[in-house]
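Q: What structure does this chain adopt?
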Amino acid sequence: MSNDSGWYSEIYANGIDVLSNIAHSLIPVEKLVTAAAYLMGIGFAIKAVFTLKSHGEQRSSLSGTGNMKEALVYIIVASMLLYFPTAFEALMNTTFGYSTVLAYSENPYLSGIMGANSALGNAITIIIQVIGLFAFVKGWIMIARGASQGQSAGNTGKGLMHVFGGILAMNIVGTMQIIINTLYYG
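A:
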């Protein structure tokens, strides 16, 4: 029996090592996605200027086919992606009431897996935060695509859900604390 428990603990330790290595390799990916968000923000700002130019040309030729919605949405998406940290802090403050991402939990229900000294919790937290970052950026891109003419109307709603889900995933510890407090402290 002692061999069985040693075997399980070795697999558990190897699994934690694998997750830790994946998490540490995702930190540069997180910086790459943030840099790509800045570049996409510049691209959307340029697209907004050209859309405004096109709208102005249509207005001067008295053809009323253009609308300002597309340009306005591109400006909003460009500002959100260009001012990424500030926009994220504002949305975090609106959603959770604080602007920083929690690194670990003091909640007794979560401290075992997401406590300050948990290697497994730290690795899972980083992986989920990177997935949340991807969802946040993808959501703003979907919102921008939903504004262009000829696109389906559902892209804006899907994009907003990706943005909100990305915020929840980037602050997974705070999200888990909200769920635990709602379900168990009621």
